[in-house]
What does this fold into?
Amino acid sequence: MKRRLVSVIVAFPLLCQCVFAQTTDPVRVYRRANEHRILREFVELLSIPNVASDAEGIRRNAARLVEMLKARGLKPRLLEASTPNAPPAVYGEWTTPGATKTVVFYAHYDGQPTDARKWTGTRPWEPALRSAPFEKGGRLLPMPADGEAIDPEWRLYARSASDDKAGVISILTAFDALRAKQLSPTVNLKFFFEGEEEAGSPHLVEILSRHKELLSSDAWVICDGPVHQSGRKQVVFGVRGDTNVEVTVYGPKRPLHSGHYGNWAPNPAMLLARLLASMKDDRGRVIIKGWYDDAEPLGEAERRALSEAPAYDRELMKELGIKRPEGAGRPLLELINEPSLNVNGLASAETGALARNVIPTTAVAALDLRLVLGNDHRRQVARLVAHIRAQGFHVTEREPTDEERLTHPLVAKVIQEPGGYNAERTRMDLPVARAVVAAVQTTSAGPIVLMPTLGGSLPLSLIRETLGAPTLTVPVANYDNNQHAENENIRLQNLWDGIETYAALLTMKFQ
Amino acid sequence: MKRRLVSVIVAFPLLCQCVFAQTTDPVRVYRRANEHRILREFVELLSIPNVASDAEGIRRNAARLVEMLKARGLKPRLLEASTPNAPPAVYGEWTTPGATKTVVFYAHYDGQPTDARKWTGTRPWEPALRSAPFEKGGRLLPMPADGEAIDPEWRLYARSASDDKAGVISILTAFDALRAKQLSPTVNLKFFFEGEEEAGSPHLVEILSRHKELLSSDAWVICDGPVHQSGRKQVVFGVRGDTNVEVTVYGPKRPLHSGHYGNWAPNPAMLLARLLASMKDDRGRVIIKGWYDDAEPLGEAERRALSEAPAYDRELMKELGIKRPEGAGRPLLELINEPSLNVNGLASAETGALARNVIPTTAVAALDLRLVLGNDHRRQVARLVAHIRAQGFHVTEREPTDEERLTHPLVAKVIQEPGGYNAERTRMDLPVARAVVAAVQTTSAGPIVLMPTLGGSLPLSLIRETLGAPTLTVPVANYDNNQHAENENIRLQNLWDGIETYAALLTMKFQ
It folds into this structure.
């Protein structure tokens, strides 16, 4: 009984400090006094459609960012690729008197494409607050008027609320807080907001190459991705590489009545099912020849970090309704250190109300291939193509001609989309790595998580290869943010925490 | 040389008679004098949206048909199901003095659902003429003014242009021609135009049962489906049964970032691919246990008819771009006498421009199961369900609960859609069968095709089971009509021929 009482006594002040108490932390004081303004600026930015292929929307976002940087005295400019209409990066800078090191702070302002009809009660570019996640009964709330309290458990729903305009707002508001409280950054600051990350960064290398001197630095800090599923902050030392491949298989040249021709005309949906099924075993292991051959094993520091990271698989399984994950019982954190093959989507003719009794003409699978250190994205795609050929398919990169159709029983069009890149990992013992870890740790009561790699991807290999700078990723979003899907959202407390994290990073001890 | 010359001489007048020559055939004379009016009435009917689930459109179609029957003195009435908003059948009748037999002429006025965006240059319910099929460069034409020539090779594009408003127009125009030329039918006529055939006729049995006496007859003649691929007219003695099944498999409860969770969260698109692949072998043979067990073998007459039917597989393969059909070399006509399992459509998350790097939450396959004599649609679906269970799936008919997801590694929702029915075949030696064959043969220079069964389906078993009447199917549409798909069309010569076919059937020698 006594011991229990003691622990309650100890825990209570800690809780108070986090949630209720008066604070003397200047960044927190600043944020509390400015929540309404921060939210307004965020909502305004989220209201501008930001799919990388929408040139007009992207330009409006970039123009808004330029205004935001200008208002802060950060000397903004657009960094353009040579291709007309390619999304520009938005650049800004701040010179710190006496600083010897320079750090680039990165976020991206574009978001994943989305079908507005799939959103529940809100729309992608009409930001809306809910009292909680809508799956948990969160109800829609009006935007709070000045003076009205803002509950940190509220969720803001919009495309890129988490991924990755939250990054832009966290970085810039951290800067605001320092300025307002007359605190100085410890390093020279550069800001790089990319406009096509979700499209695979097809022009990033060109933009970096064109501005090597402007972008020279000692390190990049990347604000993207979610914090750990346990809610703990994390520093991530690497990312998987990524490339997308679209596979189309062919049936008859025109859709056929499934009665008159069923049993005779080849059905592309079934051919695609058989092809996909040939790629993985029933535990989710990729059985394409050589798939895992190039992967570099984890080092000692990485294996230790993994073993120290909190295990969260059981909770995730419960929350996501998963009885048996892939991987034959190995933990998620281990599995994301391997290359993957994921089906992003399938389509053939129609299902549901528009379904008709037809033999479809084509069936399409959108695949993404995640890569780890040692993999090369072109080599991995070549393995996939070889596998498709080994299943008897004639592989082409264009719509098949009549002659191809009449020569080959099985025809597949396989397109590697532009913008693939390889994995990246920064050594945990670099001085900048230590400085980043120490800075983030100052903002957290418990130990932060050190993650050798994110399962997700960022074009970090392109940054190191082009500019020579190491990269460290410090995420801010809640893990259940529906990133990349409909109903993307951010939990406000994650944004508030993110501002503190980035204020600590702007003042990190890296000399 | 001589023999060749002779055959040219013989063939030429035959050709002239069909295409160019003056004719004394009163039905043809009538049609030639009335092509513009027939086309106008057809276009008007095709302009009314006619998907069975669109209650308002269906009512407008039914009202238009009632007007058309009334104008012809055919005493129309609507035959309703008890369910509100179920599509009514449109009934009409004509008593022939002295006739001892009664024949019901059937067509359906509803059409398959369709996505207007998939049509090429025209829209489903805005009928438009082309000079030829658009794949062969057919250009859009204005509707011909009175007096302008109408080329019989023109195509009329619209939903149901072939399937099956062409049936309604063929039957009613044949009746017009007889009346105009003071020719009398030989049998009492009843007309039954169904409004939900493409939805699987879920209320047909109820409507037939409610009006048994009104609908009493010696036989039904069904105008639906295409003529033989060779262009020859055909009489069809049976149809396959049909039932639709939708299979949904489940992944995580919310869409997940494919990087952060790929390799760990089960992917429903891959699970569905594996499930579908388990259903057929690489020759298209269904490997679900017992799939072919109930099928009655063909009789002697049917096998003879099949062997006499023109082989058209080579031409079809060339036209459709198919190098290797399913069925290990067996001909199409033989294969459609077996039960089938067809994937009508697949969907999981998105492909193409909307594709995102996600692990989808569900994957859906729309299946149709064609049935032959001996099969029962409920029994065949039970086999499918047993197979899905044997692959390790927990099978449910509702969205799975959280508990089901957390109890079973694999969950599939399997829904048999309403409206399935069994196959039907009429004996070739019945008097009415002989009369129908003889009547159709009088309208054709070459031998017509006798087809034991269509690959497609019509609810003919429901008619025989409910009313006891045998059914014979006499199609009119061109085989390349894109039935059930986008860009449905009819070749005008097929409509003209159909009118002559049905005039012969209204005057068949069946006493």
